[in-house]
Design goal:
The chain has 11 helices and 7 strands. By secondary structure, the protein is an alpha/beta fold. The termini are far apart.
């Protein structure tokens, strides 16, 4: 079996080699992870592996059967793995299809997923359906519409976000106690470089270089107080009715 998303799979394989970058991304959301956790869009498990190693109770999911089979091969049988599921936030009968997951999770996170969904508001509504009362939603997406490039298009991105826009979608879908910040300020220059050269994928060589620069990028994020970055992260709690 092969993935239907050839470009996405190729990039996930490249990013899998960027161990420092993946660890940094995971550490950026780790303080917000608790209880029974659901990862939407687990891909080949680049971030999933960190939760597994930290013995967090996590369910993995994707819409691509190749990725689901890959996740099963890597992680099936691990004691803190709740399950591996096919979950599609765009399913037209979402609540009926996924009633077994209703209000099941304390935390849900989506890393570089929301931008792939045409109706992002509906996707967040569906996350609300899966969360327990007061449960926490964590979303990381590409930042700044002006950075939209050929690479975004090849990856199937509908849009890029600002912090204010992403927070507004949370607020409109009954999430409160919002915490938002930007991530990976140095990455802006790397993405501009890829935009100027009209890249349609992330070259392995460039990703390896950036992986070595993660300590610098982490430092830049600290001194800029996470007010700029290639990605934006928003965390919010489901409002109790």
């Amino acid at each position: 079996m092969t993935s239907t998303d050839n470009t996405g799979n190729e990039i996930l394989e490249v990013i899998a080699e960027a161990d420092h970058f993946n660890k940094w991304m995971y550490q950026s959301i780790k303080p917000f992870l608790s209880g029974n956790i659901l990862e939407i869009g687990s891909g080949i498990g680049n971030i999933s592996s960190f939760l597994i190693k930290d013995n967090l109770n996590v369910a993995l999911s994707d819409t691509d059967e190749y990725y689901i089979e890959t996740l099963k091969f890597k992680f099936q049988g691990i004691i803190n793995l709740i399950g591996i599921y096919h979950i599609d936030l765009s399913h037209p009968d979402f609540q009926l299809k996924y009633v077994m997951h209703r209000e099941k999770y304390d935390t849900i996170f989506l890393l570089n997923v929301l931008e792939h969904i045409s109706d992002d508001k509906e996707a967040i509504q569906n996350c609300n359906y899966l969360l327990k009362p007061s449960g926490q939603l964590i979303i990381l997406t590409p930042a700044y519409p002006f950075l939209y490039s050929r690479l975004d298009k090849e990856l199937g991105h509908y849009r890029r976000y600002t912090l204010s826009r992403l927070k507004k979608i949370f607020q409109n879908n009954m999430f409160i106690n919002l915490n938002g910040f930007y991530f990976n300020s140095l990455g802006i220059f790397a993405w501009l470089y890829s935009k100027i050269l009209n890249f349609k994928t992330i070259p392995s060589k460039e990703m390896k270089v950036f992986n070595k620069l993660v300590p610098l990028s982490r430092f830049l994020d600290r001194i800029s107080f996470r007010t700029i970055g290639l990605s934006v992260i928003v965390v919010g709690n489901k409002k109790n009715n």
